[in-house]
Amino acid sequence: MNYISVKVRTSLMHTIKTKTKYWLSPQKATALLALIALVTLSLFAHVRAQTLAQGFGADKSLERGIIVVLDEEDPSRVKPATLDRVEDLYGVIINQNDASVTLSEEGSDVFVATNGPYRVLVSTQNGSIEPGDFITVSSIEGIGMKTNNIAPVVIGRAMTGFDGSNAASTAQAGDRTVSIGRIDLDVLASNNPLQKPAEANLPDFLRSAAEAIAGKPVPAARVYISVFVILVASVVSGSLMYSGVRSSIISIGRNPLSKKSIIKSMIQVILVGLIIFIIGVFGVYLILRV
C-alpha cells in the first residue's frame, strides 16, 4: 500500500514538474506575456472609450459645442471662453447623452466634456479648418477657430474640416463677417504646440490694438512692421508739412505780392503730406489684415 502511495505521489510530482517546464518555456512565457499585454491594451482602450462629462451651473443657456472656462469666482459654474482667458480653456458643452458617463449634482445646468471626440462650434476667423488643425477660442465668445502661433492653449485637434460653405450661421469678428459651423473635435485642452515663445514679448496695448484692427490675433512681427510703417509715414508727412508751411510763411513775408501762389504751393505740400500719411495707414491695415 505504501509502495503504491509513493508511486502515485512520484507520478504526480513528475506530471507537475513536466507541466511547469512546459508553461515556463521561453516560447510559452513570451506568448503568455503577449496575451497579458493584449488584454491590458484592450481594457485601456475600453476605458478610454468611456468618455466622461461633468455637470456644471451656468448663468445662461449654453449651446451644444460652446467652448467654456470655469467661473473664476465659482469653479462649480462655467461660462463661454473669451480671448482674455484663452489660457484657462477647460472643455466643451455637450448633451448629457453624448458621454458614456456623466457626473452631476442637483442644480447642474449644462454638461461639459474635457476629453474625447465631440461636435464643437468653430468659425472661419483664422481661415478654413482642415483635419489635424489645432483649435483655440476666437474673438467670438465660446466659438473656436484654427489656432496660430500666438494662442498659448488649444482646446483640441480637428477631426473634420470646415471652410464656411456649409455654415450654420454668420457673426461679426471685428469688422469682418465670418461663418460659423460645427466640426468633430478630439477635445483635450493643452499647450499650443505651434506657439512661438518670442511672441510673448509683444506689449499688451499693441496686441489689443492690432487685434481690434485685424479682427483676429496677429503675429508680433507684423505688429512691429506696422508700427515702423506708421512712424515713418508720420515723420515724413509731418516733416514735409512743417517745412512747407514754414517756408511759405517766410516767403510771404519777403514777397507779399506772391501770396496767392505761395499759399497754393503750401496747400499742395500739405495735401502731399496727408496723402503720404494716409498711404501709411492703409499699408498698416493691409499688413495686419493679410
Q: Rg, please?
A: 34 Å
C-alpha geometry: elongated
Helix content: 40-55%
Run of helices and strands: HHEEEEEEEEEEEEHHH
Quote the beta fraction.
15-25%
Low-confidence sequence ranges: 1-8, 41-49
* Fourth CATH level, the homologous superfamily of the largest domain: Head decoration protein D
- Total strands: the figure is 12
Strand count, sense and closure of the main sheet?
A: 6 strands, antiparallel
Distance between the termini: 100 Å
Mean pLDDT: 82
- The CATH architecture of the largest domain would be Beta Barrel
Count of distinct structural domains: 3
Q: How large is the count of helical segments?
A: 5
Q: Could you say which structural class the secondary elements and strand pairing correspond to?
A: alpha+beta
- CATH fold name of the largest domain, please? Virus Head Decoration Protein, Chain: A
CATH class of the largest domain: Mainly Beta
Notable characteristics:
F1FO ATP Synthase, 290 residues, alpha+beta, single chain, 5 helices, 3 domains, five-stranded mixed barrel, Virus Head Decoration Protein, Chain: A, elongated, 12 strands
